[in-house]
Write a structure and sequence with these properties.
mainly alpha; Arp2/3 complex 21 kDa subunit ARPC3; 84% helix
Length: 235
């Protein structure tokens, strides 16, 4: 194997490992929901927290330079501040839009970190609890997938960007509602599932629509400035 081949394999392995770690969380939800284990809330909490820990450890092992950490921290803080600013309007939050922007400009890892940081930091205001790792994971996944789509060049299309913005609100709601269903609803039946998802759907739709609106407002000007920063400092 040549040095170039080894380098390519080294780049592919972390991406594959990231995908497995992130996929483990919804798989755990499905398995716990299907078999209806006792203490499913604790089991799924442990899986979500473990996935976050592995992802953060991988980010740490990559030894990012300070100039690479700063945009992640700043965008995470902006997303958290935006969530707090719109505290009076449930599910009208700019967090998903900022996560998408971070993933599109700085890559999937930055997108994940921004979402995770935004959730944990803003919950010092809203309150920490067993929901925090799930919010960290859900918003992190929104940013991560945005980075994947950006790498494929799909977010250059305005229609795809807005469609993903809308889908991201539904994805966040699906994950949080699934955690509620699996962790706190016993027994799980089609009727209880319909009740949980039906009750959350109006809020998820508001989240989805507001994410599209925030993207329409901030995506183009913020992206232009962030691309300038990325290119200037070779991030």
């Amino acid at each position: 194997m040549t040095a170039r081949d080894e380098g390519a394999a080294g780049r592919r392995f972390p991406a594959a490992l990231e995908a497995l770690v992130l996929l483990a969380v919804p798989v755990a939800l499905v398995v716990c929901g299907w078999f209806q284990f006792d203490q499913t809330a604790l089991l799924t909490f442990a899986v979500a927290a473990g996935a976050l820990g592995l992802f953060f450890a991988g980010f740490e092992r990559s030894r990012p330079a300070l100039r690479q950490v700063v945009p992640t921290a700043v965008l995470g803080a902006l997303a958290a501040a935006g969530r707090i600013l719109f505290a009076a309007t449930p599910d009208v939050k700019p967090v998903s839009a900022v996560c998408i922007l971070a993933g599109a400009v700085f890559g999937r890892r930055c997108g994940f970190m921004v979402g995770a940081l935004a959730a944990v930091v803003s919950n010092f205001f809203f309150g920490q609890g067993p929901w925090t790792p799930w919010q960290m994971y859900a918003w992190g996944l929104v940013g991560y997938l945005a980075g994947v789509l950006a790498d494929a060049g799909l977010l250059e299309r305005r229609g795809v960007l807005m469609a993903y913005g809308f889908a991201s609100g539904l994805l966040f709601g699906l994950l949080m509602n699934s955690w509620t269903l699996v962790g706190f609803t016993h027994p799980i039946t089609w009727q209880t599932a319909l009740l949980v998802y039906g009750a959350g759907l109006p809020f998820d739709l508001v989240h989805a629509v507001s994410t599209v609106v925030f993207l329409l407002v901030i995506y183009v000007p913020w992206r232009r400035k962030l691309l300038r920063v990325r290119d200037k400092f070779a991030l």
